[in-house]
Amino acid sequence: MDENLRRVFDQVKPSPEQKEAMLRRLLEPERKVKPMRKLKKLTVVGIAAALMVISCAAAVVTGLDQRLLDYFGAGPEQAELLLPGAVPVDVTAEDNGAALHVTQVLMDRYHIMLLADFTGPEGTVLDRDDYGFDVPAGFMDGPLDQSGESIDIKGGWGWTLEVLDDGDPTDNHLTLLFQLTLDEGVQPNWKISGVSMCNRDLIRYGEKPWDKIVVWPGNWSCEVPFTWQDIGRSIQPNQVIGQLNGTDITLTEVYLSPMTLKIHYQRYPLGIHPPHTRTQPIDYQWNHVLDTDNMTLTTRDGQTVDLIVKGFAGTSDFWDHDSIYHLAEITALEDLEGGTLNVRIEGGSVDIPLEGLAPVE
Length: 361
What we know:
Layout: H1 3-12, H2 16-27, H3 35-61, H4 66-72, H5 76-82, E1 86-95, E2 98-107, E3 111-119, E4 132-134, E5 142-144, E6 157-164, E7 173-182, E8 194-197, E9 200-205, E10 212-219, E11 222-225, E12 233-235, E13 239-244, E14 247-257, E15 260-266, H6 284-287, E16 295-298, E17 304-305, E18 307-308, E19 320-327, H7 333-336, E20 340-343, E21 350-353
Antiparallel strand pairs: 1-2, 2-3, 3-7, 4-9, 5-8, 6-7, 8-11, 9-10, 12-14, 13-14, 14-15, 15-19, 16-17, 16-20, 18-19, 20-21
Helix pairs in contact: 1-3, 3-5
């Protein structure tokens, strides 16, 4: 077997039947070629096949949708890191000639992401990247318990929708990525059985954020069943990381998954009222004391992992702060174990050792 193909098969691990079929398809066009030219051409075919198979290996073998992998810029090895948090689903809601089809769930403790396709009637042109769904007042998308009832979420949360590039901006199809972010995370006693999604009227926004323009009316609300599982680990440093206006800031928790960093820090013990009144706004310095340019996440080998803020990124009050970031590159927890999180506040610099990362209880 060509060495390029051997390496591909080692990575992808197809079944014997798949391997035989792939080889048969690759070899058939070359049977009429002279032996010497055949060897040279098979090398080219092998390389082309390697590129093709590697590009879709994770989608075929791990069950992860290739569009999600493209969104994260993930290759086959990184896809394996996300696999424990990925669940294929098949939920379709149809109304008024259009359909919403949810096909994939990806989750960790602080994010639940759902990949879906929206298809409008033939002739509809869906060529914008700011589409959304209208949500009636008082309704909240969110997790469901074992009995199918909505779970009362404690703490802040955010529900965002992103239109992904599908290669044809002038057709009647949209690739959508929904994301539920929870600043206190999924709690063990929730026993999540799925999420509810309220998707009424496909809309776009006008010149002003509050101007909603209905693109296609309908109701594609649905419930997506899955079993929740965490793919992250955490530590509780309880370490002073700096001061703000003379008051210590203590980092109490660091959570990491292959796609997420979440930190919790506080400046006053809970129950001790700070020198503010409840009617005053939270000061700007406290809200931005640890932005992404004030932190550096480093693996045990010294590689820097950039942090990205997308959509809802945590909440803050007078006492404590939750900040949630996406990792710019899917990273193995084994590589982060033994690394550091460097934080810089008011000119100071503190390294937090990432040692003893453990599943969240």
